[in-house]
Each structure stands twice: as C-alpha cells, then as structure tokens.
Amino acid sequence: MTAAIVGWAHTPFGKLVGETVESLIVRVSGEAMAHAGIGPADVDEIVLGHFNAGFSRQDFTAALVLGADPALRFTPATRVENACATGSAAVFQGLRAIEAGAARLVLVVGVEKMTDTPGPEIGDILLKASYVAEEGDTPGGFAGVFGRIAEAHFQRHGDQSDALAAIAAKNHRNGVANPYAQIRKDLGFAFCREVSDKNPIVAGPLKRTDCSLVSDGAAAIVLADTGTALAMPRAVAVRGRAHVQDFLPTSRRDATLMEGCGEAWRRALADARLGLEDLDLVETHDCFTIAELIEYEAMGLAEPGRGADVVRDGITAKDGRLPVNPSGGLKAKGHPIGATGVSMHALCAMQLTGGAGEMQVPGAEIAGIFNMGGTAVANYATILQAMR
User: Which one, of 11, 237, 226, 200, lies nearest residue 112 by Cα?
Assistant: First the structure.
C-alpha cells in the first residue's frame, strides 16, 4: 500500500441545468480539498479525467481546476482520457505520481457535461470509443455495438432477457438510496422485462432500461502517500490495482468473454494478495446490463454463460454475498463519462469509512472497482481497504 484516498466530493448526476464543465470542476475540486482538510498549497499535482470527444467546445481543460483557488496557480495539471475508463485512468495517473515520489498529495477530478449535446450527436460522439474503421456505422450507435454483443451471448448461451431485466431492476432499486443518482426510482422487474412505449427496444435485445444514462456530473478524490494518509482524518488504502488494454476491434477477440476484464481482476486481486471471496462489495461498469452480466462471468463469479445464476440467486443484491453496484451503478446513477471512474472510487471510499448513508453495505471493509473503456478495451480494476 503506497497511497490512499483521504478526501472526496461528488455532485449529483443528471441533467444539470446551469452547470458547465468548468463550474463542475471548480465545485468538486474545492469540496474534495476541504473534505481532506488540505489547502491548495498542499496539492503537488492535479489530474483531470475528461473524455469530451466533442461534448464540450472547451477541449483543453486541465487548467480549469486551478479556478477552484488562485493558490493552485502553477501546480502541474494534466488531462487524461481513455474512453469510458477516463476517470480510473486519472486515478491511476495520480497513484503513479505518488509511487514515483514525485508527489505527496494529488487532486484527481473527473467530469463530463453531456446533456447540452443533441441526441444524434451524442451517438456519434460515443461511437468514437469503438473501432470506427469497422464499427463506426453501427445502427444504434454504441448501444448497437453492445446490442450485437448481447445477441452473440444469447446465441451461445440462450435468451438472457430475464437476467438483464433483473440486473436493471436491482440497480434501480439500489439507486433509490443514492442521493447522487440520476434516477431514484424502483422500476421493478416487470417494467424492466417488458417492451413498452416507455421501455422500447434500443438495439438488438437491449431495451431502454438496459442502457446507462446520458449525464452531467463530476467527482473528485484526494490521494496521499501512506505516511501522509496515516495522519489524516480518514484514509482508504489502494491495496491493489491493474490496468490492461485489449485490442480495439471486436473482430480481433471474443467480446462476449470480456477477457480484458477478467485479466484486470486477476492482476488486481493478486496485487492485493486477496481473492474474490474477500471482497465486501463491488462497483462495476454496467454501461449496459449485458456488460454487468458478462463481467460476473469474467471476474469469476460464474462460469461463462452462467452469469444469470448469480443475479437469480441474489448473490449480487445489496444483501447478497457480494453486493454489486449498491450505488445503483451507471444504470441508475448515470454515466458522465470522465466522472464515472472517479465516482466509483469516491463511493467505495464512502462505503469503507461507513459514510455511505442509505447506500451503506453493513460492515464493508474491502471493495473492488471495475471501470472499462470501449467494449472491455481499457480495463481498470482497483481494490480498496480502509486503513482505519
């Protein structure tokens, strides 16, 4: 353990009228520093996760963090991007600075402002996270890419519509307790299972309730080296982590296996010297319900094709053996791309310090996080444990 999370901040996710990329960055940056009990002069480095890709005209955004306090002027600040895993990429960049001895305290911010963009443009922007040369004309945009993955999974293992609806219902039920969630409504299994005017087919077998939300929002964490963290009011250690990158074209791999996800989990758990059975909760990347289903299989909760058993048996329910997405996940919480990975780390830190409110998983001590970019192309897994 060389670093820990010592402070955090989180905006609500959703359609945030009146907010801008800049205002969201400034808000969470100041709040995270205050929560950690540090001043701007204590920050050695800033890392901003911001996908953008056309959502915002302002594409050079790292220096906007300095707007949180004039005393941040001249602090090194870098923007990173790795598709929907941009937030975790920012966290990992901050961790590297600490491990290299180049920084003692790092402010990591994730942000996205998506809802100002017209619907058709959103689809085009999100498709930039696919292999455009082969997948850039997919009907339904990025949902269409995952719709094809769902169809392939169904063809191999049978119709999984019940399992997808159960995952959606679970995550919306959990989202009711999340004050930051975009949708705080228990939609129920029946609504998520049936095609209707309010829940139409989007792509392949995926319905609207199978797709994460277009969102605005930001989150921030403060990272500290272990020695510094021990003297601070709260500290959640980064016990293990892994980043693995897979081929971009789905034509070069079996996307129904998400092998990059599985490899990231294996490496992160090995780094932490833990097994899956040691985790008390997981926040995973349910950009589409088929992704969460396959992630159960990739991480080792179920054999390939048997992920439906996990959700049917209640293993991943909030009161199950391994609660998955007690926050409501991307499905209910929302998915402002650059903010998502940072949000996952902040929410797990809340859980491990007993500060998750109604979201709290009782007795949670160790949490796992999986955040991916593209179709399991950029794969980031993190293991967190409270230091005290």
Answer: 11
pLDDT of 388 > 80? The answer is no
Q: CA-CA distance, 313 to 37, in Å (whole number)?
A: 43
Q: What is the arithmetic mean of pLDDT over 273-285?
A: 98
Q: Give the percent of the chain with pLDDT over 90.
A: 98
Cα 293 to Cα 309: distance, rounded to the nearest angstrom: 10
For residues 221-250, average pLDDT: 97
Catalytic residues: 84, 335
Phi, psi (rounded to 5 degrees) for 171? -70, -35
What dihedral do alpha carbons 273, 377, 63, 181 form, nearest 10°? -80
Tell me phi and psi for residue 225, to 5 degrees. -65, 160
- Bridge partners (DSSP) of residue 14 are 216
- DSSP-assigned letters across all residues of 270-335: HHHT--GGG-SEEE---SBHHHHHHHHHHHTSS-TT-HHHHHHTTTTSTTSSS-B-TT-HHHHH--
**In this prediction, what percent of the chain has a pLDDT beyond 70?**
100
> Is residue 384 within 8 Å of 349, Cβ to Cβ?
yes
Confirm if 230 and 256 have CB atoms less than 8 A apart: no
Q: Quick one: pLDDT band at residue 242, thresholds 50, 70, 90?
A: very high
H or E element that contains 77: strand 77-80
Which of 268, 216, 263 lies closest to 241 in space, CA to CA?
Answer: 268
**Spatial distance between the Cα atoms of 329 and 172, rounded to a whole number of angstroms:** 8
CA neighbor of 233 nearest in space, from 387, 69, 30:
387
Reported as a single tens digit per residue, the pLDDT across 136-179 is: 999 989 999 999 999 999 999 999 999 999 999 999 999 999 99
Based on DSSP, count helices (H) and strands (E) in the chain, helices before strands.
13, 11
Residue 19: both structure tokens together? 């907010």
55 neighbors 112 (Cβ within 8 angstroms): yes
**pLDDT, position 119:** 87
All structural domains of the chain: 3-117+214-229 (3.40.47.10)
